[in-house]
Amino acid sequence: MVFLFEGDLGGLGYWQIWVILIVFAYLASGPLNYQTTSAGADWIKWDYNKRWYQRRARSNHLKMYELTRIEGYFAGGMLHIRFEDYEGRGADRQVGDLQRDRRIWDLFCNGLLHSVANGAEINRTAVELLKLDETPALRLREQRPQPEDG
Fold first, then answer.
1. How many domains does the chain have?
2. Residue 26 pLDDT exceeds 60
3. Phi and psi of 147, rounded to 5°?
4. Residues 56, 21: one domain?
5. Which DSSP category does 116 fall into?
6. Torsions phi, psi of 56, nearest 5?
7. How far are the Cα atoms of 73, 97, 101 from residue 76, in angstroms, in the given order?
8. d(CA 24, CA 37)
9. Where are the transmembrane segments (predicted)?
């Protein structure tokens, strides 16, 4: 292929090279990769397709009503949310990806509000951007009796 680029770029005039470049670019973009999100009454799960070099498909799930830590942050101009349940399982997702399916977003929000009301650790960015100040979840958490140190 070096002979095509000696001196000038005249070798790029061959249509066969463009076909190879386009096919390579398409395959390098991961067209066969996909991710599915599913949710139940108290869980949310992400499945990733099995690649040829993996023994089994990757999967991650967590209990939405038992979240212990919720953190919102911006990355690349998008709002991301990082959350973790009581067993240490966690995920980091763009809020737009979660909002893509309204039913999953509703289930996720219910679990998130329940966790916040039950004392989940949440940062100010997540409170402001998810508009949790407008919900009773934070007020309920403040009204709960705190365990005494002793």
1. 2
2. yes
3. -65, 140
4. no
5. H
6. -145, 160
7. 10, 14, 22
8. 29
9. 12-29
Q: Are residues 46 and 18 both part of a single domain?
A: no
Q: Based on the domain organization, do 56 and 77 belong to the same domain?
A: yes
Residues 43 and 96 in one domain: yes
- Asked if residue 40 lies in contact with residue 92, where contact means CB atoms within 8 angstroms, the answer is no
Structural domain harbouring 19: 1-31
> Which of these, 121, 54, 124, lies nearest to 85 by C-alpha position?
121
Q: How far apart are CA 130 and CA 150, in angstroms?
A: 36
pLDDT in tens, 118-135: 888 889 888 888 888 877
Residue-level pLDDT at 57: 53
- On whether residue 122 sits in a domain, the answer given is yes
The answer to whether residue 15 sits within a structural domain is: yes
Same domain, 40 and 23: no
Structure tokens that stand for 56 in this block? 């089994």
Measured in Å, how far apart are the chain's first and last C-alpha atoms? Answer: 76
Same structural domain, 40 and 26 = no
Q: What is the DSSP letter of 74?
A: E
pLDDT tens digits, residue range 56-101? 555 577 888 899 999 999 988 888 999 898 888 888 888 888 888 8
Rounded Cα distance, 107 and 109, in Å: 6
